[in-house]
Amino acid sequence: MVLLIMFTLFIYLGLSLYSIHTFGQPMKDGYIGLSILNDAIQRTHASNVVTSIVFGYRGYDTLGEATIFFVAVLGFYWTMSRMKGGKDSDDSSR
Amino acid sequence: MTIVADKTARVLYPFILVFGAYVIIHGHLTPGGGFQGGVAIIGAAALVYLAMGIRAFHRYVSLSSLTIADSLGALLFLLWAFLGLVYTGYFFGDFVGKLWGDGVFRSLLSSGVIALMNISVGIKVLGGAGEMVVALIKGVESHA
Q: Which of A88, B46, B48, B51 is most solvent-facing, going by the fewest CB within 10 Å?
């Protein structure tokens, strides 16, 4: 059953490749990138368009990114503080 | 470390700190931003540890101050977002531009809330990357 679902999904995703636009060509419809490029400076007054996208147009994305970074630091610190080992350490405290 | 690395790091690390602060503060004007500047500042702290040792590192950096920076940056970021919700009606709305105007293009006080978010993300990344460096240093020192 799972294999059947996976196979169907594979076929559908493969068929969707036919409707993708040509590589390296700008999209004919849905030109959100072009509208950002044309309007970003007038709308945000930031001369760095990348920053205006990251913090202005895609603020939610940056919020999620900051959350992911926070959790990653927590996990890294936890892992490093639990990590024992090497030649001269005892395993009794694990 | 050797005396060459020690003296070179002593000369270099203030310049790296200033460069990191510049990248954070001018994030809405020039290439770079909060993430890159925060990591550059923590790079200077890691240089201090590698060249001058653990004692010099802990004279400037402590885990509690880094934790405060991390949490403060995240809370400031959310505060700007909620102030946008209060004053403009949109989460992450540009309340600075609505209340005080957008400022002169290409000057430091421009682009409204984007500059504030940039600086708070810089503080946050500084704290988070610094906590990672402190964890790594703890691991290295416990095996030394």
A: A88
